[in-house]
Amino acid sequence: MLNIAVLVSGGGTNLQAIIDSIENGKLKDVRIVRVISNKEDAYALSRARDHGIEAKCISPKDYGERSLYFEAMAGEIREAGAELIVLAGFLVVLSKEFVTEFKGRIINIHPSLIPSFCGDGYYGLRVHEKALERGVKVTGATVHFVDEGTDTGPIIMQKAVEVKDGDTPEILQRRVMEQAEWIILPAAIQAIADGKVK
Ligand code: GRF
User: Which of 56, 69, 96, 184 gives 20 to 30 Å between its CA and that of 25?
Assistant: First the structure.
């Protein structure tokens, strides 16, 4: 059994995809032991609680220093017994110390085909705005290990998605989620649980 902690900041549709995959038996030998948000009002926390998963907010605002905030995060993750940390729309940049402690045990989902449209400032709708601005015909999503950089860690899985005429950033974002993110995030977790990715 692979115990995972899922870190979120917003709506939590990727978290929902993981929960659904576990509940419908597609994702095997994986258990969500904690969901942690930096925002009290993140809908992702309700999604977790609705499914009986322990969920809590740890806000940087409650800690004077960044290092203390990440110590609290690390403490919670250790206490929960999580072996893998899944960033599913988590919008806080991790500290170097946190990444070092959990190196090789943190994965992230990014809504583009890395190395396109990634790095500092590329999050949320902006990723899709930039893809449309550049006029690419194919975009997608990437699951990767997290290292000290932004979206620079080893790639685990990618899936391409077609860009269509008339797409808005919102329409493209939704298609990338439906056709790529919600599929490859549970699949990447399964691959790690099965020992196929190290
Ligand atoms: C997703 O697009 C994910 O790729 C990105 O943040 C968004 C989170 O969406 N990192 P949700 O909270 O999972 O609905």
Answer: 56
